[in-house]
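$ ./design --mode recover --in tokens.txt
reading tokens...
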């Protein structure tokens, strides 16, 4: 008999989950187009609606930069490296989902505003701002892993968040 393969860890699954969550933004944009864009993409909306979307994006960016990568540093303990790595990934995953929610809020506000001003362009503006913001702030790539690992390792305990997977 063969032994079953080990379940993939967060290093492999988190990017897949994030890609699926990010894929909802273009999908919802297309769906809203069928509802709001009966005559093409419509006229440019009242100037306040895009300004609100941009202001929400600025707030989301500021929250992600100022608080999104903060976490208490790892404490010294007699735990194994695998346990420390698992805790680091749990914290990083929770932070990633929080940062994603902030980035997605930009898009969700744009959808709500689009219905109030009856203009599909507001949704497009929200999607065009939210997707790059997501890929900058919430995508679990090396940049964001290093930033989060720096906070975890502030007291000198390695987080094992960056680099290869530990061997048991």
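writing sequence...
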């Amino acid at each position: 008999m063969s032994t079953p393969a080990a379940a993939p860890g967060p290093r492999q699954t988190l990017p897949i989950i994030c890609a699926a969550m990010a894929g909802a933004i273009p999908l919802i944009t297309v769906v809203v187009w069928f509802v709001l864009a009966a005559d093409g993409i419509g006229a440019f909306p009242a100037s306040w609606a895009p300004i609100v979307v941009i202001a929400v994006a600025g707030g989301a960016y500021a929250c992600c930069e100022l608080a999104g990568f903060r976490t208490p540093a790892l404490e010294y303990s007699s735990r194994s490296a695998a346990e420390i790595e698992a805790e680091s990934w749990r914290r990083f995953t929770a932070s990633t989902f929080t940062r994603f929610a902030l980035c997605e809020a930009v898009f969700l506000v744009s959808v709500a505003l689009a219905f109030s001003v009856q203009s599909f362009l507001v949704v497009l503006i929200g999607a065009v701002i939210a997707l790059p913001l997501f890929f900058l702030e919430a995508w679990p790539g090396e940049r964001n892993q290093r930033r989060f690992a720096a906070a975890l390792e502030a007291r000198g305990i390695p987080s094992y968040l960056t680099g290869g997977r530990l061997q048991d």
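exit 0
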